[in-house]
Write a structure and sequence with these properties.
This protein is 66% helix and 3% strand. It has 58 helices and 18 strands. Helix 35 packs antiparallel against helix 36.
């Protein structure tokens, strides 16, 4: 909208300042331009007071003056709008200007000025507006600040901005200071750490030296002071003294105790001295005392020992304490000596104390200063951190913006690719649509040309062109091609070749237009000559040995080979590194390999003599480790070599270096440089070439990349797997890599297969199977699938992580490295889109490459986390490893099985004994039979498949051979001419017994062993080009002829269309009828008025009108004769004859091509087999047989006659019967004598085609016969010469020896070609071995002969079949051409007759109009105009004949009162007829059918709607009414009852109807056809009082009775016969049914006999029984009105006639057959398997009837009188109880 306003302001209004959308708000913020716009439109008179300044006072002034004008215009404007515009709020000025624009446009339309608009307003509004303006000015002044405020705000804003900048600078400086301080602190810390580390290291070294130099002397552990030692010693002494005192006390106490004990003992001893003496005397009595003494003594001894121990211990302790005291004293003395100081030393100590104090003060000061420095550094570090954070934030923002830009670029690229893809698809769809339109228009054109009868061949050709993308319309003419044809001509040539190939395929495969007729399908020969195919394959293998050989290793490797592909950042490298950790595989990356190759070149990596380059993979695998070790040593010890010119490495050498085995010296002028280059390793050479290309700014070629990769792969051991990381990237790289690794090229393999299949006319089915396609270079190819956005996100994440993990660099080198990393990241960012696009472009081709021959592609979704992706890749890798292992194991098993088979066959083959040679007599007898029997047996019987598969057993083959021998034995004799060998009577008798074993195999079968004797080298070199020439000439001839036939078809259609349209134009030629009409009308209107009513004048006018009509009719007749003559001239033209002649010549050319192929094949087989027999090929002087062509012109063409014989177009003697039959066959309707010449010429051409076919067929037969005869003559000559030469004394031997010399001669001839090493045997004396060898050679010669003749006769059969097919198709083509022409001629005749009739009708119409005016005596005011076949009045009113009345729609039957319609009855009849064709169905099945119809009547309308509510019980009750013999239902009777209402016939009507049927039945068969049925009619007819509705579009009422008559025929007729037959007697028996069962039986007897049968007088008992029976009828039948009416009518008739039985009543005789038929004994017993119970019941009736007849004296069951029969009690009981003729009451 702003652009529209800017254009309006700048161009239309032309304001003083140019306005742009960007500066819109600023330009209108002062209000000056708004006033200028209003001033331009004469609305702002005070514009001179406006100021352009941007100060606030100017803005207030301008907007205050604008406000009244804007309110006058009706624009919404207040102080808020003004404030928004002044403050430059976006959109405010644009909105106001848009409103102003619309108002001004309206004002311009109205043409009012501002003054006029003010004057038009009322005075009150003006005052109110002035008040509003004042208020607006005040409010606006309050809203808009003063200019000084603006200036102050601007100044403050400026200072605020400056303050912000200063603050940012200060923060940045502070951050830098903190960063520097932190850096210094970090450096100091690092310095201190290093210093401490060095000092600690030095101290450790000194201590280590001291420890190594000093002898360790143990010292006391105490390291205390002197006082502590003294105190310890004193404590120890005190303790020892205390211990001694304690021991002394204890000792003294013990001594005291002992003394006391002794004293007490002495006292007691003195007191008891007397007792003691007495006790002592009695020693034996006091043992306790002795024990006590002993105990005391022991205690004393123990105490003494303890005292001695304590004493010694005490002494030892005192000694130890003394020694310790002495040692302490010595130490104290030593310390006192060491601590003794002089006076000077004390002064020095004092000075040292002062120095230490000063150092302490300095240290404190330094600590304080360091503290200040630390605070400063912390502050600077904090400032630096803040600054780094700000910079990081800015970098993050820049990075995010860059990422967004990258995504936008990627989206743009994606959109461009989508647009390109859309454009491509659009162009494809547009092209397809154009082709569809072309096809549609072509079809429309040819619909017009062929009168909507397009030939199938043309339509199929168009469809093939459409499906293959070829243009349907001709793009250019290709009749006269230049040396450089245009693109359109090339397209036309391709289209022509394509159609030719399709036609040739149809011809070869005998499909499409060349499909076999029905009479030829059974005699189809095998499609392939196996013997000829074997011969051609052998010749081709001799002349062109196969180049592609499968070189599979003997022991397949278990090593896995694969590659990982995917987009950039899809996780390939991560996955392969993960695999390398878990599996012993080698990872190869092309980037790393290229860098290593270039580095190897820079390191001058050379080849050492100790380790030459291994060319074979097997040798290379064993020395790979040594090579790597040597190369690593060379890399460490290499020195820079002399430079050499890299220009010598040309690009052609890059292409030649495909694999690592190539190590050739490049051609160079400088020998020294080339030698130095050749000394480099292959990797270094490849690196040199890569570097040369990179220095030139070029990319490394695919060939060079593949060479580098293959070189790296060849360095890997064979038993180790490898995986490529991201390679190959293009289809070309994949092809080159596969060719380098496998040695196979798919294109070369396809070409080699095409070379193998040179022969397309004959294929050898026994040839070895084609080599399977080579395995792929990889075992698997994994695609890590990832979307483009995910790839970009991963790149951004990696770069963001790299930015966040950056640390401050220490030196310039690290900064340079960081800059390089940033450059690499930027390069990666720049290349990511190209990489993604490149992958998307190349991946579809790679996917097709890795999925077509063998699907080795595995797709993995890589849009997962790292662990999941690695796990998935690992699982897939393990799966592929298992597959590879299984595959290798399977191959090993197959090879082992093959080895076992070979080992089994080798020992068994020589062990087999050779078959005994047959006797010579039997050979002579059998071989001619084999020649006659096996040569026709080569043609396959029709039971076999056309592909030549023979899968029958040996026994079946023998039967076939015998059958063919019997069938074609005579034919073989006639074809062979003479009998091959003259047989004696004795020999003929020996031929009778047949061999017991299996028959010999047929030549060309799977069991047949072909003769592969060596042939001369010159024969394949000659015969293979000869066979190629045969094929090419045959195919080219066939294609050319089929092309001419195809083009002639278009010519025929165009010509027929032209003659049709030309004849139509001829029929529309102008005539002169209107002149006569105008003259007559002028004369008629010029008649005087007084003569109009005169009768004579009217008669004269009528006569003139008649004359005019006759003249017009004469003109019509003349034109008709001219049109007939024109049609006759078209018929008599020579076009049809010429077209038929050209067509015949085309088909004769096809016959000639088949004949030439047969002759050439015969000669090839003859040369091949004669060369195998070491015979010189015969020089065939006979010329090739030529098929004569039809001579189209009468001129003498001598040159053509010299080359190709010509046959004149002369009618051959015609057979009248044939001409009549042909003319009837072609004209079909009636004979047209104008087309008789066409028919006769067609017959002559047909005979000419047949004669030519017979001539070609007989020529082939003669050639085969001559070949067989020649073989036999040569064999006889050889036998005769051998007999004459080899007569010897052994002639008296058996016949076997006599017959061997000719074989020996033949063997000698072969020996000349073979040059055997053995010496020639003596011709007179023959050993057993020589006789066996001669017998073997004789067998070989006979086998060659048999194989040759079989191949020749197969070719004969196939060629004869082709010739017969060509003859059949030629006759059909000629007949179709004649039929097309005849149809056109008939159509012309039809047009001529229709036009003539229309012209006559228009003349009649004109005559009617004229007579009307004559009779009414009025002038013809309007002009009468007769134009061609149309008649007009006044030139624009066309007169048509009276239109026919409109066709009424067919009547439709409607449901009424639950009655079934005719359509429903027919549907039920079809269902019942399909289930029970005989008419009898089980009651249960019948009830089920009705139940299904009721319950499943979903829109089928099979039954009336009123029947839908019937329950199963009601249906069963309905079934019980129709039951026959308690088990079955007659469904015909059911349909007959449900079709009511129809007039129930009287007995007389039934008899009359029966008589009419008998009168119609001429042959008295008892059946009539539908035509006879309708002719005889029933007792009722259709409704005659049908009311015809007045509306012609309303259908007539449905005539139900008329349709019921037709339905009854369909119900009772037998449709198994053709035409359907109706048993009218059986039908009338159904109609004899009556509500009264007894009456129904008598009516049936009357119908069966043909006369009325009177009922006997009933007794009252019978009447009561009858009434009771009538009352016991079905409960659902309540009011049968039609039946009661019929009963009443019959009773009235009987009462009128009088029910008197005459005397001779019931005298007619009735037979047993008629009686069985009445009582259902004839038709229902035809299905005994299904209705066995019914058959049983009928048998009971028959037996009873036989008894009845015997009782009535009819012993031979002859017919008896009815009256006599009715008197029999069984018959009376049967009539009274038989209920089948009762009509049940169904409601």
């Amino acid at each position: 909208m702003s652009e529209i306003l800017c254009q309006w302001l700048n161009q239309e209004v032309k304001v003083s300042q140019t306005v742009s959308p960007k500066s819109f708000a600023k330009a209108f913020s002062s209000g000056y331009l708004i006033g200028e716009v209003l001033h331009k439109f004469e609305l702002q008179d005070d514009f001179s007071k406006f100021t352009e300044s941007r100060v606030s006072s100017s803005k207030l002034n301008n907007f205050s003056r604008l406000e009244p004008t804007l309110h006058l215009l009706g624009v919404q404007f207040d102080q808020n709008v003004a404030h928004n515009i002044i403050t430059e709020k976006p959109g405010a000025a644009t909105k106001l200007l848009y409103q102003l624009y619309t108002v001004l446009q309206k004002k311009r339309k109205s043409g009012l000025t501002g003054l006029e608009m003010q004057t038009m307003q009322p005075l009150t509004n003006i005052r109110l507006q002035n008040m509003k303006s004042e208020a607006f000015r005040d409010r606006l002044r309050n809203l808009i600040p003063r200019q000084t405020d603006f200036n102050l705000m601007r100044v403050t804003h400026r200072f605020q901005e400056k303050y912000k900048h200063m603050k940012e600078d200060f923060v940045q400086m502070h951050f830098e200071k903190l960063e520097n301080f932190q850096k210094l602190k970090e450096e100091q810390r690092c310095f201190n750490i290093e210093k401490q580390r060095l000092s600690r290291r030095r101290q450790n070294e000194i201590m280590a030296k001291i420890q190594a130099a000093i002898i360790q002397i143990p010292k006391p552990a105490s390291n205390r002071t002197l006082k502590a030692l003294e105190a310890q010693k004193m404590m120890k002494k005190k303790k020892e003294a205390e211990d001694v005192a304690n021991e002394i006390k204890k000792f003294e106490a013990l001594i005291k105790k002992d003394l006391q004990a002794k004293e007490s003992a002495s006292k007691t001893s003195l007191d008891t001295a007397g007792q003691t003496t007495a006790d002592l005397l009695n020693t034996y009595s006091d043992d306790d005392y002795i024990k006590k003494i002993q105990k005391l003594l022991e205690e004393d001894a123990f105490a003494r020992e303890q005292r001695e121990k304590r004493r010694r211990r005490l002494l030892m302790d005192q000694l130890i304490a003394h020694e310790a005291q002495e040692e302490a004293y010595r130490e104290e003395q030593l310390i006192n000596r060491l601590m003794r100081q002089s006076q000077q030393e004390r002064r020095i100590a004092v000075q040292l104390m002062h120095v230490r104090h000063e150092k302490e003060v300095l240290w404190q000061n330094r600590i304080f200063r360091e503290k200040q420095y630390e605070e400063r550094r912390l502050k600077d570090f904090q400032d630096a951190l803040d600054r780094e954070a700000a910079l990081a934030k800015l970098a993050k923002i820049d990075f995010e913006e860059q990422a967004l830009r990258e995504k936008e670029v990627h989206e743009q690229i994606a959109v461009e690719r989508a647009q390109a893809r859309y454009q491509k698809h659009y162009s494809m769809c547009a092209e397809i649509l154009d082709q569809i339109l072309d096809l549609s228009t072509k079809v429309a054109d040819y619909r017009m040309l062929t009168n909507n009868l397009i030939p199938h061949k043309l339509m199929r050709d168009w469809k093939e062109l459409f499906f293959n993308g070829k243009p349907i319309y001709d793009q250019a003419s290709i009749k006269h091609l230049s040396a450089k044809p245009s693109v359109e001509q090339l397209i036309e040539l391709e289209k022509r070749d394509f159609l030719d190939s399709n036609d040739y395929d149809d011809y070869k495969n005998m499909v499409g237009e060349w499909a076999l007729p029905e009479e030829m399908v059974d005699s189809l020969p095998p499609s392939n000559n196996c013997i000829l195919g074997h011969v051609i394959r052998r010749l081709v293998e001799k002349s062109l040995p196969p180049q592609v050989e499968s070189a599979e290793p003997e022991l397949p490797s278990f090593a896995i080979k694969g590659c990982l592909l995917g987009k950039t950042f899809s996780g390939k490298t991560t996955a392969v590194k993960f695999l390398q950790k878990d599996f012993p595989i080698q990872i190869l990356s092309i980037d790393t390999l290229v860098q290593e190759a270039i580095q190897a070149f820079h390191d001058n990596e050379k080849i050492t003599e100790a380790l030459p380059i291994q060319k074979e993979p097997e040798e290379k695998a064993s020395l790979v480790l040594q090579e790597k070790a040597k190369e690593s040593q060379d890399l460490q010890n290499v020195f820079s070599a002399a430079p050499f010119p890299l220009e010598t490495l040309t690009e052609t050498e890059d292409k030649t270096m495909l694999s690592a085995e190539t190590n050739k010296t490049p051609k160079s002028e400088e020998v020294k440089s080339s030698d130095s280059f050749s000394e480099l390793t292959v990797r270094a050479q490849l690196g040199a070439k890569s570097e040369q290309l990179l220095k030139k700014g070029k990319s490394i070629s695919d060939m060079l990349l593949v060479s580098i990769m293959v070189n790296a792969i060849n360095q890997i051991p064979l038993d180790q797997g490898w995986v490529l990381d991201g390679f190959p990237m293009t289809l070309n790289q994949a092809k080159l890599l596969e060719e380098a690794l496998t040695g196979y090229d798919r294109n070369l393999i396809e070409l080699e297969e095409k070379k193998k299949q040179i022969s397309t006319l004959a294929v050898d089915p026994t040839a070895s199977k084609e080599v399977p396609p080579p395995p792929s270079a990889f075992d698997f190819v994994m695609l890590l699938d990832i979307s483009d956005n995910s790839s970009l996100d991963r790149m951004n994440d990696i770069m963001a992580e790299a930015l966040s993990s950056e640390t401050p660099r220490e030196d310039i080198n690290q900064r340079v490295a960081a800059n390089q990393d940033m450059d690499e990241d930027q390069n990666l960012r720049d290349q990511i889109h190209h990489r993604i696009v490149g992958f998307l472009d190349n991946w579809p081709l790679l996917e097709q490459w890795y999925t077509e021959p063998e699907n080795i592609l595995i797709k993995i979704n890589a849009e997962v986390d790292k662990e999941s992706l690695c796990q998935k890749v690992k699982e897939m890798f393990m799966t592929e490893i298992m597959k590879k292992e299984n595959k290798v194991k399977k191959k090993l098993e197959e090879k082992e099985a093959e080895k076992k088979e070979v080992s089994l066959t080798e020992p068994s083959s020589p062990a087999a004994p050779p078959p005994p040679p047959p006797e010579p007599e039997r050979e002579k007898e059998i071989h001619p039979q084999q020649e006659r029997s096996k040569t026709p047996a080569k043609g396959k019987p029709p039971s076999e498949s056309p592909h030549g598969k023979q899968e029958s057993s040996q026994e079946g083959k023998g039967k076939k051979g015998e059958a063919s021998l019997k069938r074609k034995g005579s034919k073989g004799k006639s074809a062979g001419g003479k009998v091959p060998v003259k047989k004696s009577p004795a020999e003929s008798t020996n031929t009778s017994p047949t061999p017991v074993g299996p028959p010999p195999p047929k030549p060309g079968s799977e069991e047949w062993v072909y003769v592969d004797e060596p042939i001369a080298e010159e024969i394949p070199s000659f015969l293979v080009p000869y066979w190629e020439l045969i094929e090419s000439s045959y195919i080219d001839s066939i294609k050319k002829v089929l092309r001419h036939l195809r083009e002639d078809q278009h010519t025929v259609l165009a010509y027929l269309y032209d003659i049709r349209t030309g004849f139509q134009q001829f029929l529309r030629r102008p005539d002169h009828k209107q002149n006569f009409v105008s003259q007559w009308q002028t004369d008629f209107n010029s008649l005087p008025d007084d003569l109009w009513d005169d009768e004579e004048t009217k008669a004269e006018l009528h006569q003139r009108l008649n004359d005019l009509r006759d003249r017009l009719w004469d003109i019509c007749d003349a034109q008709k004769e001219e049109a007939e003559q024109e049609r006759l001239d078209i018929i008599n033209e020579s076009w049809l004859q010429d077209s038929m002649g050209i067509t015949m010549n085309h088909f004769f050319s096809l016959m000639q091509a088949e004949l030439n192929r047969f002759q050439d094949t015969k000669r090839l087989l003859q040369d091949y087999y004669r060369g195998m027999e070491c015979k010189i090929p015969t020089d065939d002087n006979k010329k090739f047989t030529r098929v004569p062509l039809v001579q189209l012109c009468t001129k003498d063409v001598l040159e053509c006659q010299l080359r190709i014989p010509l046959v004149p177009r002369i009618s051959i003697s015609l057979d009248l019967a044939m001409s009549k039959s042909k003319s009837r066959a072609l004209l079909k309707d009636k004979i047209d004598y104008t087309l008789e010449n066409v028919e006769l010429n067609f017959e002559a051409d047909e005979k000419l085609v047949i004669d030519t076919w017979q001539q070609a067929s007989s020529a082939i037969s003669h050639m085969v016969t001559a070949e067989i005869h020649q073989r036999l003559m040569e064999e006889e000559k050889e036998n005769q010469s051998a007999d004459a030469k080899d007569k010897s004394p052994q002639m008296s031997a058996n016949k076997k020896v006599k017959n061997e010399p000719p074989k020996k001669k033949k063997e000698d001839k072969k020996a000349k070609g073979k040059s055997p090493p053995t010496a020639e045997a003596s011709p007179v004396i023959l050993t057993v071995e020589e006789m066996a060898e001669m017998e073997k050679r004789n067998k070989l010669r006979l086998k060659i002969k048999e194989e040759h003749l079989a191949a020749l006769q197969f070719e004969e059969i196939a060629t004869q079949f082709r010739l017969e097919l060509i003859k059949t198709k030629a006759l059909a083509f000629l007949e179709e051409l004649v039929l097309k022409a005849v149809d056109v001629y008939k159509l012309m005749e039809k047009w001529l007759g229709e036009r003539y009739l229309k012209e006559m009708a228009s003349v009649e119409k004109l005559t009617e109009v004229a007579r009307y005016h004559i009779e009414t005596s009025t002038k013809i005011q309007n002009e009468l105009y007769l134009n061609q076949e149309d008649f007009f009045i006044n030139g624009d009113v066309k007169v048509f004949p009276d239109p026919p009345p409109p066709i009424r729609p067919p009547p439709v039957e409607k449901e009424e009162n639950g009655t079934l319609t005719i359509e429903q009855l027919d549907n039920l009849r079809e269902q019942f007829l399909e289930i029970a064709p005989k008419g009898i169905i089980g009651n249960k099945a019948f009830a089920d059918i009705l139940l299904d119809l009721v319950t499943l009547n979903l829109g089928t309308n099979n039954i009336p709607s009123s029947w839908m509510h019937l329950t199963q019980a009601e249906l069963q009750e309905l079934t019980s009414l129709l039951v026959v013999n308690s088990e079955f239902v007659d469904w015909r009777k059911f349909l007959l009852v449900t079709s009511l209402p129809w007039p129930i016939p009287l007995e007389e009507e039934l008899l009359k109807t029966l008589q009419r049927f008998k009168a119609v039945d001429d042959e008295q068969l008892g059946t009539v056809t539908f035509k006879q049925y309708m002719q005889a009619g029933l007792w009722f007819k259709g409704d005659e009082d049908v009311k015809i509705p007045e509306n012609p579009l309303e259908p007539l009422p449905f005539n139900r009775q008329e349709h019921l008559i037709e339905f009854f025929f369909r119900l009772f007729a037998d449709y198994e016969k053709n035409p359907p037959q109706l048993d009218y007697t059986q039908m009338l028996l159904y109609f004899a049914c009556h509500p009264d069962a007894v009456e129904g039986v008598y009516r049936a007897l009357s119908v069966a006999i043909g006369t009325h049968v009177f009922q006997p007088i009933e007794t009252p008992n019978l009447i009561t029984e009858k009434t009771s029976f009538l009352t016991d009828m079905s409960p659902i039948a309540e009011s049968p009105e039609p039946e009661e009416n019929v009963i009443s009518e019959e009773r009235e008739v009987k009462e009128e006639k009088g029910e008197e039985i005459p005397e001779n009543a019931n005298t007619e005789k009735i037979s047993m057959e008629t009686l069985l038929r009445v009582f259902r004994g004839g038709n229902e017993a035809q299905d005994p398997n299904r209705f066995s119970s019914q058959l049983k019941m009928e048998n009971i009736y028959a037996e009873n009837f036989i008894k009845v007849f015997q009782d009535l004296d009819a012993k031979n069951l002859e017919a008896i009188e009815v009256a006599v029969l009715l008197k029999h009690p069984f018959i009376q009981d049967l009539i009274s109880s038989y209920s089948d003729y009762r009509i049940p009451r169904i409601q």
